[in-house]
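Ticket #506: bound-state structure for zinc ion.
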Amino acid sequence: MSRAAQALAEEIGAVNDILCAVALLQWDNRTMMPAGGAQTRGNQIATLKGIARERILSDATRRATDDLLAETEGRADTDLDRRAALTVQAAIDHHRRLDAALLRRQAELGPVAGAAWATARETSDFAVFLPFLDESVALARESAAAIGHDGHPYSAMVALYEPGETAASIRRFFAKLRAGILPILDEARGRERDDVVHRRFPAEAQRALCRDLAELTGYDFGRGRLDTAVHPFEISFTRNDVRITTRYREEFLPGALFGALHEAGHGLYEQNIADAFTRTVFATDLILLYAVGGTSFGAHESQSRLWENHVGRSLAFWQKNMGRLRAHVPGRLDDVSPERFTCAVNHVEPGFIRVEADELTYDLHIMLRTEIEAALLDGSLAPRDVPSAWNEAVRRDLGLEVPDDRWGCLQDVHWSSGYFGSFPTYTVGNAMAAQLMEALKARDAGLDASLAEGDYDRLRAHLTDAVCRHGRSRTRDELLRDATGEALSAEPYLRYLRAKFSGATA
Ligand code: ZN
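RESOLUTION: The complex was predicted; output attached.
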C-alpha cells in the first residue's frame, strides 16, 4: 500500500470506528434502552456523527485524498485505490455543501417532529403533525438545493439511498412495474384466505424457530445475535458483529418467521463482505454517516427479500422444512400440508398498512409514497393536501377507502424523521432479488435441486460471490451487470410475480 493510500486508510478507519460506535448506540436504543434515555442518547449520537463528519472534512483526510487522487491519475475508476479516493472526495464535497446550521436545524426538528407524529397517529389527527411536516419538507428542499440535482429536488434525496437513481429514472421504472402488477393483482385478489397462520404460537417456540431458520441460511451466530425489537432491523459494527432482531405476535406466526429470514438476509450481506474491506471506505457510507458494507439500500433489500420470499415463501422450502416447523410448535400444524402452508403465507389481499402487505401489493404501497414525496419535494403537492392525495391513491391502486389518517398517511415514521427518498429502495430491492435469482438459476442448473434438498450453502455462496463480498467497492448496477448481464430491470420481477400469483399456479 502506498503512503497516500495508507494515510487515507487510517483516517477512514477512524471514521468507521466512530460510526460503528454510533450503530451500537442505535442498536441499544432500539432493543434495550429504557424510554428515559431517549434525549441524552440523541445527544450522544449527534455528537459522534459530528465528530465523524469533522474527520472527513479534516486537513489530514483532504490531503491524503488529494495525494491518492494524484497518484492514481489515469487509472481506471475500477482500480480500488482510485475508487477509494474518488469516493472520499465525493463525500468531502457533499459535506461541504451542507452547512452546519442546516444540519443543526434538522437535528433539532427530529425529536419534536417525531413526538408530534406519534401523537397525531395515536389520535388520527393530521393537523397536529402538519406544521412539522411543513418544516420537514422545507428542510428537505433546502438540503436538496444545497446538495445539487438534475432539476428535480427529489433526485438529490433518492441518490442518497440509491446512488445512480433520479426522480425520473424511478418514475419510469415504477410505471413499468405498475403496469405489470395491476393485472396480476386483479387475478389474485379475492381468493379465499386460510387462517392457519393465525393459530396461537407461543413466543418462546417462535424464538427458537427463528434462530433455527436464521442458522439454516448460514447466518453466523458466532458473529451475530438475534434479539427482540418493536420495529425489526439489522445493524452491524463491522462484519465481525452483525445483529438482527425480530418480534413475536402469538396470534400471527409469519411476522416473526419471515421477519427473521428477512433480517438474516440483511445479516448475511454484512457478514460476507470481504474481510479486507473491514474499516475501509468500502464498508462505510461516508455520505449518510453510517457504518455499512452494502452498496445501496436497494441492494441490501435485495438480499433480505431474496431469503424471505424466494427461499422462505417457496413450496420447496416448506416441503423440506415443514417437519422442522412442526417440531417447534408440537400439535399445532400437524394437520397442515406444506402446500397448504405455502399457500397461506402467500395470500394476496389489499390492505391499508404497508408493513403488513403481501408480496404483490407491497410495491403499490411504495409507489404511492414515492409519488407523494416527489410531489412534496418539487412543490406540486402542499403538505396540507397529503391526506387527500394519499386516500385517492389508495382508492385508485388498492380499491380501498381509508377510514382515517392513522390507517393512511400517518402510518410511517419516515417523513417525521426527515427521510425523504428512501421508500423506492424497497421496491428496487424486490426487483433486484428476482433479477439475481433468475440469473443464478439460469447459470447453475443444480441450484433448484440443492434448494429442494434443503442445502442453502450453494445459494449463499453464489450471493456472496455476486454481491456480498464486494461491499461498497462496486455499484449496484455494476454487480447486476456482472451477475445478470444487465442493469436493474423490471422484467425478471414481473415474470416471477406472474409465475407465482397468476392463474392456477398460486
Ligand atoms: Zn429490509
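RESOLUTION NOTES: Residues 3-31 form the longest helix (29 residues).
TICKET STATUS: resolved
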